[in-house]
Design a protein that fits this description.
The chain is an alpha+beta fold. A four-stranded antiparallel sheet has the order 2-3-1-4, covered by helices on one side. A hairpin with a 3-residue loop joins β2 and β3. The N and C termini lie far apart (about 80 Å).
């Protein structure tokens, strides 16, 4: 049986979603109750840190970052930022990233796509120089 600390927050789990946060936003959330912890404030800047369901800290992810990177890149980058800002893993461990419904996934370009594009470009250039 799992026990909860005196604050009533689950010790080692995060909910699957937060209905209180608008679905169109891209955001990150970590366990915590203090919206002024430096590792979260510094990594969320310029966006404010909020407390949701009294047990979780969350902030919006810059739309340019959310649209230009994969989910793992955003999660890993945010985690690295928090470690660099001396995140206390005894106080807060775990990270959840949600890509907003308005954020486009990072484009995936394979080597084959790049070769086809290069060949098509060279054919067009060759055709225009013959004329």
């Amino acid at each position: 049986m799992s026990t909860q600390p005196g604050n009533g927050c689950p010790p080692a789990s995060m909910p699957g979603d937060f209905p209180e946060i608008p679905n169109n936003l891209s955001w990150v959330a970590i366990p915590g109750q203090n919206a002024s912890v430096p590792w979260m404030v510094n990594c969320c800047e310029p966006y404010p840190v909020h407390v949701v369901q009294k047990c979780w800290l969350w902030c919006e992810v810059d739309p340019d970052v959310a649209e230009g990177a994969s989910n793992s890149v955003v999660s890993n980058g945010f985690g690295a930022c928090m470690v660099a800002n001396k995140r206390n893993l005894n106080e807060s461990n775990g990270l959840m990233y949600h890509r907003g419904t308005n954020a486009a996934a990072a484009p995936r370009v394979s080597l084959l796509h790049a070769v086809v594009a290069a060949l098509a470009t060279s054919v067009v250039v060759a055709m225009t120089s013959v004329v």
